[in-house]
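wait is this the right file?? whatever heres the structure
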C-alpha cells in the first residue's frame, strides 16, 4: 500500500513538471518577447513580408540561418544580381520552401537523389559521416517534396546523382546556391560545378561546416585555396559558411 502511494505521488509530480514546462513553452511562444532584425521588422510592419514567410519563420528553429537566407536574397534583389537559385541536398524541402517563398520569381533547381546517401559516396567518408548508411535521409521522395513546397512553375526538380543530374545545365548561371550535401564527394562536386557558374555578387551557402562533418570541412577548405574569395562564417546552429563571389 505504501509503495503504491509513493508511486502515485511520483507520477503526479512528473505530470506537474511536464505541465509546468509546457505552460512556460506556450507562454513564451504567444506572449514572450521575440527579437528580430530591424530590417525584417520594418518590412513586416510595412506589409512587405508574405504571410506564408512569416509562418515559416515562426516554425523554423534556426533563426540565424533563416535570416541569413532572407538577407542574402534581399541583397541579390537590391543589387540586381542575375541568375537562378539552386539547392544541392534538398531532403524534405524545408529550406527550399523558405528560399522559394522569399523570392518565387527566380528559377529554382532542386538537386537530390531523394533516396538518401549513395554507398559510393559513403565509402570515402571520415568522422561522424563514416558511421552513416544509405538508409540515412532516405525517408523522403520527390512527390512528397513537391507537395510540401507547393511552389510555382519556377521550381525544377533534378532527381539523381550529382553532378549527373545537372546534365544540360552547363550554360546556366546562379545567383544563390544552398549546399547541404553532408558528404565530401557531393560537396566537392557541387563547388566545382556551381562556383564557375555563379554570377559576380552571387552567393554559395554551405551548411554543416563543423567538426562533425569532416568531409565537408575538407572539401570546402581544399576548394577555397583555389579561389580569391574567403569564407564568411555564419553564426547559425550548425556553422554554415558563405562564399560571395567578387564582382
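ok assuming it is, sequence goes like this
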Amino acid at each position: 500500500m505504501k509503495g503504491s502511494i509513493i508511486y502515485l505521488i511520483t507520477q503526479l509530480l512528473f505530470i506537474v513538471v511536464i505541465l509546468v514546462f509546457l505552460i512556460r513553452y506556450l507562454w513564451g511562444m504567444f506572449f514572450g518577447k521575440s527579437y528580430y532584425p530591424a530590417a525584417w521588422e520594418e518590412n513586416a510592419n510595412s506589409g512587405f513580408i508574405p504571410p506564408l514567410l512569416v509562418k515559416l519563420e515562426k516554425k523554423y528553429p534556426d533563426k540565424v540561418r533563416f535570416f541569413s537566407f532572407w538577407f542574402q536574397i534581399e541583397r541579390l534583389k537590391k543589387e540586381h544580381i542575375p541568375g537562378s537559385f539552386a539547392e544541392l541536398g534538398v531532403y524534405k524541402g524545408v529550406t527550399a520552401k523558405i528560399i522559394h517563398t522569399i523570392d518565387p520569381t527566380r528559377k529554382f533547381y532542386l538537386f537530390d537523389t531523394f533516396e538518401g546517401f549513395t554507398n559510393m559516396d559513403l565509402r570515402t567518408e571520415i568522422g561522424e559521416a563514416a558511421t552513416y548508411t544509405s538508409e540515412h535521409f532516405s525517408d523522403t521522395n520527390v512527390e512528397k517534396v513537391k507537395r510540401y513546397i507547393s511552389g510555382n512553375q519556377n521550381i525544377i526538380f533534378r532527381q539523381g546523382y550529382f553532378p549527373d543530374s545537372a546534365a544540360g545545365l552547363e550554360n546556366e548561371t546562379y545567383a544563390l546556391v544552398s549546399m547541404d550535401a553532408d558528404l565530401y564527394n557531393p560537396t566537392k562536386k557541387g563547388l566545382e560545378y556551381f562556383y564557375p557558374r555563379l554570377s559576380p555578387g552571387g552567393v554559395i551557402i554551405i551548411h554543416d561546416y563543423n567538426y562533425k562533418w569532416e568531409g565537408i570541412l575538407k572539401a570546402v577548405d581544399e576548394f577555397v585555396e583555389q579561389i580569391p574569395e574567403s569564407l564568411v562564417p555564419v553564426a547559425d546552429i550548425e556553422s554554415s559558411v558563405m562564399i560571395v563571389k567578387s564582382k
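The mean pLDDT is 89. so i think its the right one actually
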